[in-house]
Specification:
alpha/beta; 14 strands; binds flavin mononucleotide; two-stranded antiparallel sheet; 406 residues; TIM Barrel; 14 helices
């Protein structure tokens, strides 16, 4: 593929003038085993609203996801595969029986509304804190390198609080098969919980990304050093998960050139092209990439050449459906699909505030603004109380009135 490296600084208002049926965003697409009615995916969004104790999904969470079931596909919020995998207060897990039952409420609610949902499987590695770890142990990581910045924990009063990260403990080689087995167990639990598939979270500076990237991986064993070693854990996890699920129900999320959670790689082009080639050989449903040109998209500036080269390399190395996330609106999403840079887009913050986002984008309706103060923690406010168009017009009752989660 030889897509040009430049995008116009101003976005192309192409979609405004095109009838819906001509907009690529609204063309159906087959992604692995999923027949998707359009190309607007709900990105994974941590909301820190699992029921306590036990980090259990509840009817409140089911309501939130059901409201958003018109997404082509929902990628669930990141969900810890084990207690050790947790990095923030009140995030849901998929390691206990109660959690599996809780997720069943969510998947049933989404299916009842005609949607599809995959589970994003998460181990945060060093992005945690002893307060969240079993027996107050330090978090684990490829190497004992403390992240800059702060962890989000619960204080004694039950409130969210920031606390400095600690130096993590390096995983021992003999622990690696156990870690992989925890992903496999989570994948099995996802079947019991009624998910349609799973997404392996290899992005945003969490455990698998920490192994991939040179800034966090100083190991000298089979999991460190050359890129073939640094990608090993990701591939072992994918291979374990695809023993449980058909590859056509499994996606992977990567964030090439990402900086989230103090992650850094000396040579992202080599690292992520290699990882993509290896994943490509596994014939997964999709590759989900956090767009390295996200900032430029949002600011309507020209993306830098390195980011566009990275994307181009990934597009060449990955032959299946490619999902891109980060900074898209209706026009830039349409433009990027038309330019062949992606097959689907995942949208995050706009989905927080607009439960019926695809319909709003389809009809060029105004969007509700999201409130960052209510992203993490709390109840319905900033979660299930953003109105749909039908509710705004008084044509639909307040959705999902269910108090049973309290
Ligand atoms: C509140 C919030 C929570 C997020 N949680 C996750 C998550 O659980 N897993 C993940 O891979 N990305 C997560 N992200 C990143 C989003 O999936 C997405 O990549 C990002 O918001 C950029 O897309 P947007 O510009 O459409 O919002 C989160 C982002 C936000 C704003």
């Amino acid at each position: 593929m030889s897509a040009t490296l430049e995008l116009p600084a101003a976005t192309n208002p192409a979609s405004e003038s095109r009838p819906t049926e001509q907009r690529l965003l609204f063309q159906p697409i087959k992604v692995g085993r999923f027949e998707l009615p359009h190309r607007i995916v709900m990105a994974p969004l941590t909301r820190s609203r699992a029921r306590q104790p036990g980090n259990v999904p509840s009817a409140l969470n089911a309501c939130y996801y059901q409201q958003r079931a018109s997404a082509a596909l929902i990628v669930s919020e990141a969900t810890q595969i084990s207690m050790q995998g947790q990095g923030y207060a009140w995030t849901p897990g998929i390691h206990s029986r109660e959690q599996v039952e809780g997720w069943r409420l969510v998947t049933d609610a989404v299916h009842e509304a005609g949607g599809r949902i995959v589970l994003q499987m998460w181990h945060v590695g060093r992005i945690s804190h002893p307060a969240l770890q079993p027996d107050g142990m330090p978090p684990v990581a490829p190497s004992p390198i403390r992240p800059e910045s702060m962890a989000f924990i619960e204080n004694e009063k039950g409130e969210g609080e920031l606390a400095p990260f600690v130096t993590p403990r390096a995983l021992q080689p003999e622990e690696m098969p156990y870690l992989v087995a925890q992903y496999e167990r989570a994948a099995r639990h996802a079947i019991k919980a009624g998910f349609d598939g799973v997404e392996v979270h290899g992005a945003n500076g969490y455990l698998l990304d920490q192994f991939l990237c040179t800034g966090t991986n100083r190991r000298t064993d089979a999991y460190g050093g050359p890129v073939e070693n640094r990608v090993r854990l990701l591939l072992e996890v994918v291979d374990a998960v695809t023993k449980v699920w058909d590859a056509e129900a499994v996606g992977v999320r990567l964030s090439p050139m990402g900086a989230a959670n103090d992650i850094r790689d000396d040579d992202p082009l080599t690292t992520f092209t290699h990882a993509t080639r290896e994943l490509n050989a596994r014939k997964l449903a999709y590759l989900h990439v956090v767009n390295p040109a996200m900032g430029a998209l949002e600011n309507k500036t020209t993306p830098d050449a390195a980011a566009m080269q990275m994307l181009q390399r990934i597009r060449e190395a990955w032959h299946g459906p490619l999902m891109l996330a980060g900074g898209f609106d209706a026009d830039t999403a349409e433009q990027w699909l038309r330019e062949g840079r992606a097959d689907l887009v995942a949208i995050g913050r706009k989905f927080i505030a607009n439960p019926d986002l695809p319909e709003r984008l389809r009809t060029h309706a105004p969007l509700n603004a999201d409130d960052a103060a209510t992203y993490y923690g709390g109840g319905e406010k900033g979660y299930t109380d953003y109105p749909s168009l039908a509710q705004e017009r008084g044509q639909a009752p307040k959705a999902c009135v269910d108090e049973s989660w309290r």
